[in-house]
Amino acid sequence: MSRAVQLVTLVVGKRSHGSKLCQVKTLLDSGERESCEFRLNDANLCTSTGEASWICCLKGAIRSFKERRGQVPGFKVVIVSSLPAKLGLGSDSALVVALYTLLEAITSTCTGNVMEKMLVCQQAKRLATNSCKVRASDILVSLIGDQGRIFAFDAQSLDVDRANWNDTDVQLVLVELNDDTEGGKKSSAQRDESKTRCEQVATAMNTMSRWRAHPAGASSMGLLFPRETMEMVKDAIVRHERIANMTNAIRRERWEEFGRIIVK
């Protein structure tokens, strides 16, 4: 919206012909200037504890690009950002998208499909943060976010609905946060367990329609998956319906109805 604080991430760079080095200078929200230089071989692209978040984002973007496109030539880049780091405002997501777009520019490649680019940038952020919990919607904001436009994103179907923010008698700023009941970072074993559970949920949801025709009904799936998985499936279905209702309310400009859905 026009009254929102203007937050900007700007990346400017060029290819260094005959070089295998990445040379970076930054001017971030803290006002401090930093610089670094490293070779673009795989060993130097691994992130480590204590590295600045922008270095991790750069390495994650390069690794994701190399996995999909091949080699990355040497380049120089300047990063300027007014996004507060580590304050949950999507600064890492914006930076990853900007850096991946730069890599496309210096290699004369382009990812034309928005969903495809969102997924590769999501993978880049996973590599940068060493976490499997990366919100696709944060990446998407940096790809298609536009003043005066609302978009609703379904992470399961990868569908995007857009609507205009018309000049109606309402002012609305909404931030919806997920509850983190576990708190703190997960161990490797916990991450593996969470990944397995998510894969089970996806399998259950993708096959649920087939089980409806079975004489025992969808309840038979409870024999195939743990109780926790089936509870997550039910929760995902409820969330999907909630997103659909929110999208319909926005499209019809029923703001009171939209508010009631949010506070349920």
UniProtKB/TrEMBL annotation:
Transmembrane stretches, start-end: none
One MF term in the entry's GO annotations: ATP binding
One GO cellular component term: cytosol
GO-annotated biological processes: galactose metabolic process
Keyword hit for ATP-binding: yes
Name of a matching Pfam family: GHMP_kinases_N
Record domain GHMP kinase N-terminal: where: 58-131
UniProtKB keywords: ATP-binding, Nucleotide-binding
InterPro entries reported for this sequence: GHMP_kinase_N_dom (IPR006204), Ribosomal_Su5_D2-typ_SF (IPR020568), Ribsml_uS5_D2-typ_fold_subgr (IPR014721)
Family the entry assigns: Belongs to the GHMP kinase family. GalK subfamily.
Name of the featured protein: GHMP kinase N-terminal domain-containing protein
